[in-house]
Amino acid sequence: MFTSGGGRGESLRKWQGEPLYHADLAPEKYRDLLTRSGFDLAADVIEDASCGGATIWLARCP
Questions:
Q1: What is the rounded distance in angstroms from the CA atom of residue 3 to the CA atom of residue 52?
Q2: pLDDT in tens, 15-61
Q3: For residue 61, what are the CA distances in angstroms to 15, 19, 30?
Q4: Angle CA(49)–CA(61)–CA(3) in degrees, nearest 5?
Q5: Is the pTM higher than 0.85?
Q6: Where are the domains of the chain?
Q7: How far apart are the first and last CA of the chain?
Q8: Is 28 left (phi over 0), alpha (psi -120 to 50) or beta?
Q9: Where do the H-state alpha helices sit in 1-62?
């Protein structure tokens, strides 16, 4: 299980006063990478409002 952003590319923000680089992929790319890596995608919730707009991924290794 992991979370990702909304697939908006790269950004530079601050976290605890320090610069933080963030890169994100489109949901289709995460799906492709998970399946090509041998995982079964059990569930995903794209831009879940209850999780601050993050996308939630649940995958399992068969």
A1: 11
A2: 899 999 988 899 999 999 999 999 999 999 999 999 888 899 999 99
A3: 33, 35, 15
A4: 20
A5: no
A6: 2-60
A7: 15
A8: alpha
A9: 27-36
